[in-house]
Amino acid sequence: MSRLERGTATIEFIWLTILLLVPLVYVLVAVFDTQRAAYGVSTASRAAARAFLQSSDPATGEQRARAAARVALNDQGLDGATIRVSCLPSPGACLEPGSSVRVIVRATQPLPLTPDVLGPRLAGVTVDSTHTEPYGSFRGRR
């Protein structure tokens, strides 16, 4: 081993470690952000459906559902999610025995460290959740 090669193994090891660890950490952060978004939309859809069924009429139910979903989404730091509330089997059959409410929440989680100069939603992962909650066959009509 010549004197010129001394210490190069350490430098090569450091560069190799940096080249492998930086992408791995980036992928882990992206996966964790996506998981947080998935948990947020799942919790939001469940909370919105339950809030809708606790209301006295469909108009109030829609307001409560959206408010409950926004609280759950804000807990996870998600902005710009879309919330759709619908009654099944038909829109006129809300809060009747045998009916149910379906809530769909969709959000796009941007990838970490993407520049805002190229657009707010340049690269991201779209997550959504659908929750259907039955009103109940033996409950009274509201």
Query: CA-to-CA gap between the ends?
Result: 88 Å
Derived structural class? alpha+beta
Percent helix: 40-55%
Rounded radius of gyration (Å):
24 Å
Q: What's the pLDDT, averaged over the residues?
A: 88
Number of strands: 3
- Sketch the topology as an H/E string, one letter per element: HHEEE
Number of separate helices: 2
Strand % is 15-25%
Low-pLDDT runs of 5+ residues are none
Major pleated sheet: 3 strands, antiparallel
Shape: rod-shaped
Strand order in the largest sheet: 1-2-3
Q: What does this entry look like structurally?
A:
This protein is of the alpha+beta class and 142 residues long. Helices cover 45% and strands 20% of the residues. It has 2 helices and 3 strands; from the N terminus they run ααβββ. The chain has helices at 8-53, 58-75, and strands at residues 82-88, 100-110, 124-134. Strands 1-2-3 form a 3-stranded antiparallel beta sheet, covered by helices on one side. Helix 1 (8-53) packs antiparallel against helix 2 (58-75). The longest helix is centred in the N-terminal third of the chain and has 46 residues, at 8-53. It is rod-shaped, with a radius of gyration of 24 Å.
